[in-house]
Amino acid sequence: MGSDVGTYRYAEVTVQWCHALYEPGFWQFKASGLIRFKPSGELSSLDRFYLGGQDTVRGYSLGSASGDQGVLAQLEMRRSLRYAGLVSGEAYAFLDWGTAQDPAKSASDRLRSAGLGAQLKVNDTLGVDVMASRQLAPHLTSPTRVMVRLVLSH
Fold first, then answer.
1. Is CB count within 10 Å lower at the N or C end of the chain?
2. Which residues of the chain have pLDDT under 50?
3. Residue 127 has what pLDDT?
4. Can you say how many angstroms the Cα of residue 71 is from the centroid of all Cα atoms in its chain?
5. Domains along the chain?
């Protein structure tokens, strides 16, 4: 019995840039991006380029778009809340964009979203993350979403 395991290669390039807008560091601009190249072979489902979820295009479900190669860009404006009576915290506005190309489809999948959020650390044990997002194009199910997450540290 022989095994017919296909081989493939892909490459990813990730870029991140953060810039404090004023000397005290209360405001920051953050940009990040990822490019996925697929030079050869057919990818397994585990290694496909997936868009959606908290790490890529926020406001979409994980895997809302996928392909063998693609591009992702995220822009954020962040404001420190460290003097608001909290241990630490940030408020932010974001714009996410991604495209995934699948050789089986004639067109690529494109997702865009925007939103607002806050990450707050109330004390050494309790934190809260809140994010509201809106799908800009295309609108899939539930185009406006709110996520609330409690973080307990022990």
1. N
2. 1-4
3. 94
4. 12
5. 10-152 (2.40.160.50)
